[in-house]
């Protein structure tokens, strides 16, 4: 029942029109190596951290859901705070950290972490991301929309 409630909450947040992902407007979905083959999906929310934004850093919060179809179902969710930083025209990097929960055969609570690269193409962004939930590490390639 807790798993279903977590999935429903994450689905509602991801479907929200008031969202950001990887520090920018939109939601993201990606094919991932999440315990073999899987997906990650995320939505974000504005997060104002004055001492960082005063230095020119963009800050954001994000809710991310990942799942994989290996020998057993791997499922993870995290709520994180992150930094988005420009690297060049049309190219930005991001990193976030926050509490995470892995569900499935091996439930664990711990830290979720991700680092990634946004590549802007026609007002959308392709992204490449590496991350970790307590019971699964992943590499993902996806699109922000």
Give an account of the 3D structure:
This protein is mainly beta and 145 residues long. The chain has helices at 2-15, 50-53; strands spanning 20-21, 24-25, 27-32, 37-46, 58-69, 73-88, 91-104, 108-121, 124-133, 136-144. The strands form 2 sheets. The chain has an 8-stranded antiparallel beta barrel with strand order 3-4-5-6-7-8-9-10. A hairpin with a 2-residue loop joins β8 and β9 (124-133). The longest helix is centred in the first third of the chain and has 14 residues, at 2-15. The termini are far apart.
Which features would summarize this protein structure in a list?
single chain; 145 residues; mainly beta; 2 helices; 10 strands
Briefly summarize what is shown.
This protein has 145 residues and is mainly β. The protein has helices at residues 2-15, 50-53, and strands at residues 20-21, 24-25, 27-32, 37-46, 58-69, 73-88, 91-104, 108-121, 124-133, 136-144. It is globular and about 45 Å long.
Which helices and strands, and how do they pair?
Blueprint: H1 2-15, E1 20-21, E2 24-25, E3 27-32, E4 37-46, H2 50-53, E5 58-69, E6 73-88, E7 91-104, E8 108-121, E9 124-133, E10 136-144
Antiparallel strand pairs: 1-2, 3-4, 3-10, 4-5, 5-6, 6-7, 7-8, 8-9, 9-10
Strand content: over 45%
List low-confidence stretches: 12-23
Largest sheet, described in full? 8 strands, antiparallel, barrel
Helix count, DSSP H or I runs of 4 or more residues: 2
- What global shape is seen? globular
Percent of residues in helices comes to: 10-25%
Mean pLDDT equals: 80
Strand order of the largest sheet: 3-4-5-6-7-8-9-10
What is the radius of gyration computed over CA atoms, rounded to a whole number of angstroms? Answer: 15 Å
- H/E order of the elements? HEEEEHEEEEEE
Structural class of the secondary structure composition?
mainly beta
Cα-to-Cα separation, first versus last residue: 30 Å
Strand segment tally:
10
